[in-house]
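Translate sequence into C-alpha cells.
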Amino acid sequence: MNFSIITPIYNHAHYFDRYLMSIIKQLGPEDEIILIDDASTDNLKDVLEDTKKIWYKKMVVVRNISKISGPSYCRNLGINISKNNWIKFLDADDQLAPDALKNLSPFLSEPGVYIGWQQTGNAQYPPALGVIDHVNPFVPSMTCIHKSILEEVNGFDSKIYFEEDWDLWLRIRERFTDRIFHQVNVLVDIFNDNVKERSERDRFRSHEVNGQDVREYIKEKYDL
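Result follows.
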C-alpha cells in the first residue's frame, strides 16, 4: 500500500516542522510527500529548500506558482504528478495522526473514498456523511482516496476557492453513488485551528462563483 501525501501551502513556514515530523516516520519506501507552495510570501521557500536537502528522496516540491491559485488548483497539481494510487490529503497547519497510514491500510481493499476521524483539541469527531446534502460533511485532511476516483471526476474544480471539497464529494457521489464513501474508525487528522490565520488565508479565497454565493452555486448545481 503506497501513499502520496498532498499538501497545498500558503505562508505556513512556522508550522512546517510540526507537519513534517507527524508524517516522516510513517512513510514506507515508496511513499511520497508532495508540497505545492501557493505563492507564499513568508520564508517557506527557504524552509522547503533546507528540508528537501535532508528528505529529498521523499519530497516533491512545486514552487512554480506566481500568484495565489487556491487549494483546488494546488491539489490538482499534486494529483497529476503523484506516483502512487492512494492519495492522502493533509493541510499544512494540521498533523497526521500517529500510525494513521498503518491503521488505514487494512481498510483500503478497493478503490473508494475512505474517511477517518479528526481530532480538534481534546475531542475527536467522525465524518458526518448524513448531512452531505446540506453542508460539507468532512474536510480533505480526513480522507484517503484512490487516485482513479479523482481522475474519473477530473479532481477539484479549480474555479472554486471555498467549499471546493464539498463540491468534489457531491461530484464523486453523482458519478459513483453513496457506496463509494467508506467511514473508517481510524484517527487520521489532528486539526490545529487558528482563527486569525484562517481568516487571513480566506481573505484571498473568493466565496463566489460566477458572481453567485458558492454555497448557493453548489446547491443549485446538484439540485439540493
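Note: The chain has a mean pLDDT of 91.
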